[in-house]
Amino acid sequence: MMFILWLSGFLWLEALFFTAEASTCNITGTWQNDLGSILKLSTEQGLFIEGSFHTMVETSTGSAGNQKTGKVVGLQNAGNEPTFVFSVCWDGGSVSTWAGQCFERQDSPELKTIWLLRSPVSSIEENWKATRIGEDHFYLVKKP
């Protein structure tokens, strides 16, 4: 009986200390969301995010600018599945911000985000229609 208890305790300790370390979800790479928009991200010093976002959708023609591409700047936290935030100032005058988390999936990583889009309006009376909120899922299409 003591041997079985010792063996079960040893197996528990082995599982605790000698299991493979969880893989880290890396946000660096080229990502695509469900609407076909392309997000290219890189990180510096494991904290700063930079890149570009090419949108496939606009609230109105030209609201994202002629190229429909904006510069990405942001920050990420440390950890195996880090949280992050990044923003884009669009040439058409709108700004967008995404906050989310990188999840390491069995087949490939995924970014789950909530976004906020602020569009310019011509008066304070139109402020009520200037902000939209939504959700984006990004899937890795190209590693760095």
Give structural attributes:
single chain, 144 residues, mainly beta, eight-stranded antiparallel beta barrel
Structure characterization notes:
- With 144 residues, this protein is mainly β.
- The chain is 12% helix and 44% strand.
- It is built from one helix and eight strands, in the order αββββββββ.
- It has an eight-stranded antiparallel beta barrel.
- The radius of gyration is 21 Å and the shape is elongated.
- The termini are far apart.
- Residues 1-21 have low confidence and may be disordered.
* Beta-strand segment tally: 8
**Separation of the first and last Cα atoms:** 54 Å
Percent strand: 35-45%
Largest sheet: 8 strands, antiparallel, barrel
Order of helices and strands: HEEEEEEEE
Q: Structural class per helix/strand content?
A: mainly beta
**Uncertain residue ranges:** 1-21
Characterize the overall form.
elongated
Q: Radius of gyration from the CA trace?
A: 21 Å
Identify the strand order in the major beta sheet. 1-2-3-4-5-6-7-8
What is the residue-mean pLDDT, rounded to a whole number?
85
Estimated helix fraction: 10-25%
Q: Gist?
A:
The chain has 144 residues and is mainly β. Helix content is 12%, strand content 44%.
Give the SSE map.
Layout: H1 2-18, E1 29-33, E2 38-44, E3 48-54, E4 69-76, E5 83-89, E6 95-103, E7 110-118, E8 131-142
Antiparallel strand pairs: 1-2, 1-8, 2-3, 3-4, 4-5, 5-6, 6-7, 7-8
